[in-house]
Every structure is written in structure tokens, then in C-alpha cells.
From TrEMBL:
Keyword field: Leucine-rich repeat, Repeat, Signal
PROSITE patterns in the record: LRR (PS51450)
Encoding gene (name): NYX
Signal peptide: 1-19
Keyword Nucleotidyltransferase appears in the UniProt entry: no
Annotated protein name in UniProt: Nyctalopin
Gene3D superfamilies for this protein: Ribonuclease Inhibitor (3.80.10.10)
Record field: transmembrane: none
Sequence ranges assigned to domain LRRNT in this UniProt record: 26-61
Keyword Repeat in record: yes
Organism: Nothoprocta perdicaria (Chilean tinamou)
Domain LRRCT: 331-378
Any single Gene Ontology cellular-component annotation: plasma membrane
SMART domains found in the cross-reference section: LRR_TYP, LRRCT, LRRNT
Length: 475
């Protein structure tokens, strides 16, 4: 048995040596042929104006990237039964003769991206490529492709057509039951019709971002029940049908960011029980219906930043077992008692941060984490106050009438409390949280200033404190 094993090793070595010799024997001028990965022919950046006439019969991969090839004739590559990968990226191809890829029965990957002069493809461009699984036509200036162009590509799984000029989802993909990935971002697509994705039963990934989509028909995705990743961000969507995503029970990521959505319906996401990441950022959302997220029991990341949200009632999230990150920055938050629950959540889980308040004025600019909510004698939350610094009297004189009495009283109360006066005296004025003392008082003396501020005030004589406050009132 040892002898047989040695014979096997010798035979294997001889076959490898013969294959390496055969690969290099007929290498085209200007190219490099290497036995790595069976037989690879590297002709990239070789200054070629035409496809070389002869390739090694054993060639498994050919790279013709970044040349000046303009034309592909019929059977342009001869007969190469072992060829699996062919790359023609970054050339100047303007015309492909029908049948150009005949003679390549084993081809599984074809790359023709970044050929800006390809504006048209004949229906029989890819004839005979029955094993082709990956086709890259990105950035080729295509306006459309024939509806039956892929009819002879039953094995096609991945289609790259991003950065072209399509105004609709190519009808050629309908019924391509083995397609798993479709890249159509950065085109000019205006709608997702009810039949645009018909028959794509194995589709897992669909990228439609950065188009001009303003309409999605009802049940447009109903045939894509294996979908896991759906990108609809950076389009022109102002509204969606109630049943937009019905049936997408395998969806893990949905991106609706960068659109014009104003409200979130409680019907959109009802079937998305496996959804883990949801982008709703960079819209105009001001209202979220109660129960909108109630079925999203797998959600771990939710992006609501850069919208017009002023509040976020607890009832919106209450049914959700949400344990992940919540992004809420760049919204005009009204930090009243309606979002006190959110502050408590921030403190408990440390998964939410950067929520600056826009109102009331007493807390404007303060992060929600730093807002202090007062309580009524019954223990109910009290909203932070809305400050009005000055107003004008309706009297003919037009003299400004000071309305800083509440602010002045709050100031006296705070100062008296911090020097340790009796509770009866201190309670003669009203104390408001989250207000900063007027400019001109000792630095650091403000609500929430900490021990340093208390020590400064405590060191001042009582008459000096009252005198200072009176001076501030008179300003």
C-alpha cells in the first residue's frame, strides 16, 4: 500500500507539472499565465485593444481588466471548456456580438462592470452560459435590457446592475427562481410595481437605494418570502401601502432611511418577526402609531435619528422586547413628562444616548440624561417650566414689564436652601429644576452645579445673597 501511495504522489506531481507547462505553453503575448487556481491568465493593464486570439485550453480564469477593448466578436474567446471566471471590467466595450461567449460552457462568473459605452445588449448576448451564477454589469450606462435576455441563464444567482440608467426594475429578472442577490442601487428607478419581483422565490438580498422611487405598489414584495436584506433608503417615498412588507417573515434588515415619510403605520411591520435592524432615519417622521413595533420581537437596532419627533410615548415601545440600541439624536425633543420613561431607560440600559432637548426653554440644549423632573405631593411627574424672560405691557407708554418674578423667586429659594435656612422660609418661593441662574453671579452657581456651587453660596453672608439677588432682579 505504501508503494501505491508513492505512485499516486508521483502521478499527481507529473499531472500538476504537465498542467503548469500546458498553461504557460500558449500564454498570449503581454499576459502572465500561472498554474495557481488551476490555470489563471492575467492580461490586466496590458494595453490590449482586442481580445487575444489564443488562450491556453486549460484556462480556468481570465482577467482582461483595464485594457482598451472595444468590441467582442462571436466566439471571442474560442473554446475554453475549463474556464470558470472571465473579467472584462474597466474597458471601452461598446458592442457585444450575440454569441460572443459561446464556447465557454463552464463559465460561472462574468464581470463587465465600468464599461461606460455599453448602452444596449442584444437578447442573445449571454446565450449558452447555462452555468453562469454571477453577472456584473455595474456602471455600464444601460438604460434597459431585453425582458428575455436571461432566459438561457437558469443558474444565475447574483446580478449586479447598480449605477446604470434604469427607470424601472428590469423585467428580465422576473421568474428567475435561482436569483438570490440583486443590486440595483444608484439608478433612476421610479417605482416598485406589483409584478416587478414576481417569481423571485429565493431572493435574499435586494438593493434599491439611491433611486427615485416614489411609489411602492401593494404587496410588491409578496413573492419574496426568503428576503433577508432590503434597501429602500435615499429615495422619494412619502408614504407606503398598509401591507407593504407582508409576507417578509425572514427579513433581518430593512432600510427606509433618507425618504420623506411623515408617519409610521402600525401595519407596516406586522409580519417582520425576524427583523433585527430597522432604519427610519433622515425622514420627516413626527408621529408613530401605537403598536407600530409590537411584533418586532427580534429587533436589536432601531434608527430614528434625524426626524421631526418631539415625543416618544412609552406605549409605542411597551409591547416590544427591545434590548438593543436606539438612535434618537437630531430630533426636536420636547423633554416633558411623556419621555421621562426614556430617561429611566437610558439610565438603566445605557443603550441610548445623545438626546438634546429642544423644549421647554428651561431645559433647551440640555441632554435628556441631565434633566431633573420634579414631583407633585402625590408623586406625579411635573413638566419642566417654560420660561418667559420679558414681555411688553399693552399700556401706551410701551415700557417693558418685567415678568421675571418666578425666576427671581426661584433664585432666592435656591440660595436660601443652599445656605441652610429653615424649610418654612425656603418654601415661600417656588423651586424649578433645570434652570440656570442669570449671568453675573459667581461662576458655577446653577441648578445641578454640584458641591462646588453649594460651598460658594454657603460662604456668602445672607445679606450679601439677598442684595445680589435684588440687584439681579433690577437688571
Amino acid at each position: 500500500s505504501k508503494g501505491l501511495y508513492l505512485l499516486f504522489l508521483m502521478a499527481h506531481h507529473l499531472i500538476g507539472a504537465r498542467a503548469a507547462w500546458a498553461c504557460a505553453r500558449s500564454c498570449p503575448p503581454g499576459c502572465v499565465c500561472t498554474p495557481e487556481r488551476r490555470c489563471s491568465v492575467l492580461c490586466d493593464r496590458a494595453g490590449l485593444a482586442h481580445v487575444p486570439a489564443d488562450f491556453p485550453c486549460e484556462a480556468a480564469a481570465i482577467n482582461l481588466d483595464k485594457n482598451n477593448i472595444r468590441f467582442l466578436s462571436e466566439r471571442a474567446f474560442g473554446t475554453l471548456p475549463s474556464l470558470r471566471s472571465l473579467s472584462l471590467n474597466h474597458n471601452n466595450i461598446s458592442f457585444i456580438t450575440p454569441g460572443a461567449f459561446k464556447g465557454l460552457p463552464g463559465l460561472t462568473e462574468l464581470r463587465m462592470a465600468h464599461n461606460e459605452y455599453i448602452r444596449y445588449l442584444h437578447m442573445r448576448t449571454f446565450t449558452a452560459l447555462r452555468r453562469l451564477a454571477k453577472l456584473d454589469l455595474a456602471d455600464c450606462n444601460l438604460f434597459n435590457i431585453p425582458d428575455r435576455i436571461f432566459v438561457e441563464l437558469p443558474a444565475l444567482q447574483e446580478l449586479f446592475c447598480f449605477q446604470n440608467n434604469f427607470r424601472r426594475i428590469p423585467g428580465a429578472i422576473r421568474g428567475m427562481e435561482n436569483l438570490t442577490h440583486v443590486y440595483l442601487e444608484r439608478n433612476r428607478i421610479e417605482a416598485v410595481a406589483y409584478n416587478s419581483l414576481q417569481g423571485l422565490t429565493k431572493l435574499k438580498y435586494l438593493n434599491l437605494q439611491d433611486n427615485r422611487i416614489n411609489v411602492i405598489h401593494e404587496r410588491a414584495f409578496q413573492g419574496c418570502q426568503k428576503m433577508e436584506y432590503l434597501y429602500l433608503n435615499d429615495n422619494l417615498l412619502g408614504e407606503l401601502p398598509e401591507n407593504s412588507f407582508d409576507g417578509l417573515r425572514c427579513l433581518k434588515m430593512l432600510n427606509l432611511g433618507g425618504n420623506f415619510l411623515r408617519n409610521i403605520s402600525n401595519t407596516w411591520f406586522r409580519d417582520l418577526v425576524e427583523l433585527e435592524v430597522l432604519y427610519l432615519d433622515r425622514n420627516r417622521i413626527s408621529y408613530i402609531e401605537e403598536g407600530a413595533f409590537e411584533n418586532l420581537t427580534s429587533l436589536v437596532v432601531l434608527h430614528l435619528n434625524s426626524n421631526n419627533l418631539t415625543t416618544l410615548p412609552f406605549s409605542v415601545f411597551q409591547p416590544v422586547y427591545f434590548l438593543g440600541r436606539l438612535y434618537l439624536f437630531r430630533n426636536p425633543w420636547e423633554c416633558d413628562c411623556r419621555i421621562e420613561w426614556l430617561k429611566e431607560w437610558m439610565e438603566s440600559y445605557r443603550l441610548v444616548r445623545d438626546i438634546p432637548c429642544a423644549s421647554p426653554s428651561s431645559v433647551a440644549g440640555i441632554d435628556l440624561m441631565d434633566v431633573l423632573y420634579d414631583r407633585s405631593p402625590d408623586g406625579f411627574c411635573l413638566d419642566p417650566v417654560e420660561l418667559n424672560v420679558t414681555s411688553y405691557s399693552p399700556a401706551p407708554s410701551g415700557e417693558p414689564l418685567s415678568t421675571t418674578e418666578s425666576k427671581f423667586n426661584s433664585l432666592i429659594s435656591k440660595l436660601l436652601l443652599q445656605v441652610g435656612l429653615s424649610e418654612d422660609v425656603a418654601n415661600t418661593t417656588e423651586l424649578f429644576s433645570n434652570t440656570t441662574l442669570p449671568d453675573g453671579l459667581t461662576d458655577g452657581v446653577s441648578s445641578g452645579a454640584g458641591e462646588h456651587g453649594s460651598q460658594v453660596v454657603a460662604s456668602l453672608p445672607l445679606n450679601m445673597i439677598i442684595f445680589t439677588a435684588v440687584i439681579l432682579q433690577s437688571k
